[in-house]
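Annex B, item 7. Sequence and structure tokens for protein A, then protein B.
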Amino acid sequence: MFQPAGSRGTVQVSVRFAPRRRGQTAGEAQPSEATVLEVRSAVAVDTVMTVSCQPSGVPMNRPLPRTIAAVTAVLGVVSLLTAALYFTTIPENPPGDGFAAGLTGLFVILCLVIGVLTLAEAGLLVLLAQFRDPTERTRQLLSIGAAAGSCSVVLLVVPMLIAQVVGGLPPAVLTSGSGIGLLLVPVGIGCSGIGAVLHLVDEFRTENRA
């Protein structure tokens, strides 16, 4: 409570914070559950002004899960197409001991695995984030898993695809991010898997409480 200069009354300002329900996102919050600011003036007439605003703990520019899932799905398709492209370069009767053809075959298998996993991570993110209303923690884990899968495709598959299309790239460019790309594959699987498990646990607890 304070008294403005040059006035005979007092002004009382109070701020109330209403907690958000478990599993409720920022877009689903009702105005009554947002931050409420009340200003009461005792100069002449008791006047109440209520302002609803978004809680400060919610980021304003958070990327939508649908956008992350769309980019991840596109990169998953790119990985599968790269596997098909390299598969056509394997000769039926490879010259020499077939070592080069064997390496190409291993790369084709790697692209297939990464492509399938990336599409699965994108589908899981869309399924849970858009239709099952997960908690913010689960949504973040699913988004991180999909983003890690996307980055693994960018670091492992895209340079090889460019090399096949343009006729070759320097070895330093092809191998610069391969280690990080391989590391991101289990990171994406782990984050998406943990997010799915946490969502199942949250649903189980909600059903028991009901």
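Protein B:
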Amino acid sequence: MLRSTAGAFFLYSIVYTIFFRPIDQFHNFSVTVASLLIIFGCFYYFFEIMFYDYYLEKQLWKIPDFWVATLLLLFFSSSFLFFAFFPKVIAMDAKLWGTLNFMLKLIGGTMYLSFGLVYYLPLLREGNQDDFPNDLATSKS
């Protein structure tokens, strides 16, 4: 499903660039659609966690994939709102626009920092192998 969605979005972006908006203009509608697709992907991941019991024997807060999906949902929800109303946002007062832009960058920076930490912190803990993601648990010496 992910490959077909990515392929469809790629085709959409090519068609949108060629026929509707030139490449030298900002494509806020494409960013809005991409944000919406990522939000739906996060909800699909949470749906699978709840109904298919993938992590039934594990504590969910120790699963790095859960935190990545949560942070993606947080960032792209705010990104979706920012870029969906982008023409209105840039028409605002420059100070307010700058504040909104800074908040979006702060959320994005926190997200990317957390991406590194959720996979790195289990390596710092001396615990059992259940705390590590599968690919890291087998490569630990």
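Comment on protein B: The chain has six helices and no strands.
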